[in-house]
Amino acid sequence: MMITSTDEELIVDGIPVGARLHQPSGSAKSTAPVVLHVHGGCFVGGSAAEADGIARLIAEAGAHVLSADYPLAPRHPFPQALEHLFMVLKMLDRLRGRIGRRSSRLVVAGEEAGGNLAAALALVTRDRQGPQLAGQILVGPMLDPCLGTRSLRMADAGPVGCCWADGWDAYLGAPERAAHPYAAPSNASRLGGVAPALLVTAADDPMRDECQAYAERLRQAGVPARQEEFAAPTGWPSSLRAPSLTAAPFADRLRESFVEFFKSIVPTPRRSAAAAGA
């Protein structure tokens, strides 16, 4: 499927924000979901323009995808990025009719640090009673600042120079913020009522264990949570930011995972009586 990508500039709280809109070429407006995509980069790097591989795959799965920049740590520690993205999400909710249709379902998605922020947005929208989300897509999400899982130890990042440890430190700003469920969704004591989730990880993904644990906790809370694990090697999470992501060996399966998830959260359009009798 051909995708049209256009650079956009949003005005959020009076501040220009870079964004990129990905849409299937030539497609009429439809009930396809409208997705806010949040890029990775350990909370301290990346942009909507530089790391749009996941956003394009989601668009190829049949969605309108807006990937937006957000203020980066350490200059902007928690909760600044999250509050910024919440304002972007509310703006996207108002613009659904221009991007897709007003009836289009709203979804959040992200990889690595972006997966953290997408999961946090699902918690925030539940607690603030909107905008209503139909789903959340978390790809290798950074959810646990303790960095004590087996999958992270196997990554052999080491205690010094670990990009994820450094990223968490910059994002949190203060150790006590690690206890806040919006900063570290793995610490949330109440997960019931959040949007249905697709959680994707890989055998060689350092965030594999925390992703699996979060999926299980969502299910225990009564939240529909699909979980997939890709075989190694994938090179996640760095390969998720590669410009050639859509041509990666795992790209087709990842795209299909998004397709199946959308089928589970977007109702099948009813055929009119005239169409049914044609």
From TrEMBL:
<keyword id="KW-0378">Hydrolase</keyword>
<dbReference type="Pfam" id="PF07859">
    <property type="entry name" value="Abhydrolase_3"/>
</dbReference>
<dbReference type="InterPro" id="IPR029058">
    <property type="entry name" value="AB_hydrolase_fold"/>
</dbReference>
<dbReference type="GO" id="GO:0016787">
    <property type="term" value="F:hydrolase activity"/>
</dbReference>
<dbReference type="InterPro" id="IPR050300">
    <property type="entry name" value="GDXG_lipolytic_enzyme"/>
</dbReference>
<dbReference type="InterPro" id="IPR013094">
    <property type="entry name" value="AB_hydrolase_3"/>
</dbReference>
<feature type="domain" description="Alpha/beta hydrolase fold-3">
    <location>
        <begin position="35"/>
        <end position="230"/>
    </location>
</feature>
<protein>
    <submittedName>
        <fullName>Esterase</fullName>
    </submittedName>
</protein>
